[in-house]
Amino acid sequence: MGQSIATSERVDADRSSRRRIQRMDRDYGTEVRMIRLRRARTASGAAPGEQPGTREYQHRWVVRGHWRDQPYPSLGITRPLWISPYIAGPDGLPLIGGEKVMVLAR
């Protein structure tokens, strides 16, 4: 609870909860702990005049092969299309990750 994305406070339970608590145990208090979750504070990535959605990557990475539903609007259908693995990110930056090694151990 020491994170800045959550706050905690003690409040009285709402009416229905208070009645439920009282039915179970009359001596039990009706004060509850309310935890409010907020979005994490992040530094503003772009100034108001800059174009939104621009990112500056610090490395490159390998994108695994995957299937994509490719639409063909002229035919009015979609078909599965295999996208081969590729390296994403700006050229000249270090590549993170490495070879994927699988081991079958008995």
Q: How many E strands?
A: 6
The ordered H/E elements are EHEEEEE
Helical proportion?
Answer: under 10%
Number of distinct helices: 1
Radius of gyration in whole Å, from Cα?
Answer: 27 Å
Structural class: mainly beta
Averaged pLDDT: 80
Low-confidence stretches: none
- Specify the overall morphology: elongated
Give the termini distance in whole angstroms: 43 Å
Largest sheet: 2 strands, antiparallel
Task: Give an account of the 3D structure.
With 106 residues, the chain is mostly beta strands. The chain has one helix spanning 15-24; strands at 6-12, 31-37, 61-63, 66-72, 77-83, 86-88. The mean pLDDT is 80.
Which helices and strands, and how do they pair?
Blueprint: E1 6-12, H1 15-24, E2 31-37, E3 61-63, E4 66-72, E5 77-83, E6 86-88
Antiparallel strand pairs: 1-2, 3-6, 4-5
Short description:
By secondary structure, the protein is mainly beta. The chain is built from one helix and six strands; from the N terminus they run βαβββββ.
Features:
single chain, 106 residues, mainly beta, 1 helix, elongated
